[in-house]
Amino acid sequence: MRVVHARGFYCAAGVLELINTSPAELVEKVLRSFENTQLIDPDVILDWDVFDAAFLNAVIVHGTPYQRAKSVSNEVLLKLAATTQLDEAIRRVGLKDTSKRAVLFTISRSETQAVQTALKVAELAGRLLDLPSDEGKTELLMVFYGIEEKQLSAVQAENREKAVKMMIMQRMAETLL
Q1: Cystine design at 171: which of 63, 82, 153, 161 (Cβ 3.0–4.6 Å)?
Q2: Is the pTM of this model over 0.70?
Q3: Are 90 and 27 in contact (CB under 8 A)?
Q4: Do the bridges between strand 9-18 and strand 37-40 make them parallel or antiparallel, or are there none, so unpaired?
Q5: Any idea where the domains of the chain sit in the sequence?
Q6: Which CATH superfamily is domain 2-132 in?
Q7: In this predicted model, what pLDDT tens digit does every residue of 47-104 receive, in sequence order?
């Protein structure tokens, strides 16, 4: 599990292998029992840098006119989905019925609370894993975020994967406009 801190908010995040429950059952339990906690599809996250950018963007807009969701955790969903509509964000980045893994994240003003909540959710699901590697994700995420090959050539980056990462982060930031 990892913990990220920004502007007084702590985000505990990790990848769960769904062993003891189905995706739908886990989502229902989490929504009923835990505040500021979300479960999303790990296949829509290129790497932790992209996730951290979504968290930071969500924290930055918190309490401003650019905030679209009532909670920071829902704002993270909006940023990851690069949309301003929560229903669309859930449809795009939420768990699918066939999901075998889930990215769990919980946000709190207390690091201890964020970690404890994440561990409680992990107990419901199975075990903590690492975020799956980029193998094959780049192409899928280009489609997911509507990134065209010709756009990548305009990005100054060390390689294609880093150019895609920068374009994804740009898509998230565009939701502020």
Answers
A1: 82
A2: yes
A3: no
A4: unpaired
A5: 2-132
A6: CGI121/TPRKB (3.30.2380.10)
A7: 999 999 999 999 999 999 999 999 999 999 999 999 999 999 999 999 999 999 999 9
